[in-house]
Write a structure and sequence with these properties.
Rossmann fold, binds guanine, 6-stranded parallel β-sheet, alpha/beta, 283 residues
């Protein structure tokens, strides 16, 4: 039986650590504030934003909500970001994605001050990750590293295979594994012999966006398997990119869906809000 990596438990521990740091800072007279910007009323975004506000309340971080109508112009949104960039009482700025099609996500993300980019999506944050400069780590891949380390797995020298090359998961994931001294391979839709490459992995991180795509035939005996995918099937049940029932007997450790990577993203966002204060103070 593989170890089931409990993302709910580990994210709870991280949120408690953040709560302790926030409490200490409050005793020194420091408050941490996250500005959460939502455009329109996409139901999934409303749920995500609600969960972020709840995590702020739990950890003692102030959350300031900005709900803009779907019809807001890009210029109006950029003006709000400009105002938040200049507001010293705001430590982090989060613009919930996706944005309506008439607004450029890339221009909006680039408008956020790199000192307040708690999502870690700004090109400067990506560059800092690549070069080892101080900066924000994107929350989902940073959460994956925490899951691996807090399961007691040392990444140094391990064969790490990442399936997926998105800017917010696959690419930063590869960089973080490399930073932890892993030997890293990135696979994608054009990879030849995906099964053979995946099977080399001591640590396999799957972010391909296809339900239950990775079965036991892609996995080496004793591998650590991290599933970043989340899908809802016709019956309304959640599943990941990994066929859990097939892979679990072969793995050393595996994340379930739900309750694996998902809860880590918000915990790492909370951690980034405290990191934001420290980054802003050191500059
Ligand atoms: N939409 C889906 N996931 C995310 C996220 O992590 N951050 C933001 N800003 N928007 C999202």
């Amino acid at each position: 039986m593989a170890i089931r990596i409990d993302g709910r438990k580990i994210s709870g521990i991280i949120k408690d650590e953040v709560r302790d740091s926030v409490e200490k800072l409050r005793k020194e007279g420091v408050e941490i504030t996250l500005a959460v910007v939502q455009v329109g009323e996409d139901p999934a975004s409303t749920v995500y934003v609600g969960n972020k506000k709840k995590a702020c309340a739990y950890t003692g971080i102030n959350s300031r909500a900005y709900n803009l109508p779907e019809s807001v112009t890009e210029a109006e949104l950029l003006a709000l970001i400009d105002e938040l960039n200049g507001d010293e009482s705001v430590n982090g700025i989060l613009v919930q994605l996706p944005l309506p099609p008439h607004i450029s996500e890339s221009r909006v993300i680039k408008a956020i001050s790199p000192l307040k980019d708690v999502d870690g999506f700004h090109v400067q944050s990506a560059g800092a990750l690549m070069t080892g400069e101080p900066g924000f780590l994107p929350c989902t891949p940073a959460g994956v590293i925490e899951l691996i380390k807090r399961t007691g797995v040392d990444i140094t020298g391990k064969e790490c295979v990442v399936i997926g090359r998105s800017n917010i998961v696959g690419k930063p994931m590869a960089m973080l594994l490399l930073r932890e001294n892993g030997t890293v391979t990135v696979c994608h839709s054009k990879t030849k012999n995906l099964r053979e490459v995946a099977k080399r992995a001591d640590i396999l991180v799957v972010a391909i966006g296809r339900p239950k795509f990775i079965d036991a035939s892609y996995v080496k005996e004793g591998a650590v398997v991290i599933d970043v995918g989340i899908h809802r099937n016709e019956g309304g049940k959640l599943c990941g990119d990994v066929d859990f029932d097939s892979v679990e007997p072969k793995a050393y450790a595996i994340t379930p869906v739900p309750g694996g990577v998902g809860p880590m993203t918000i915990a790492m966002l909370m951690k980034n809000c405290v990191a934001a204060y420290r980054l802003q103070k050191s500059i």
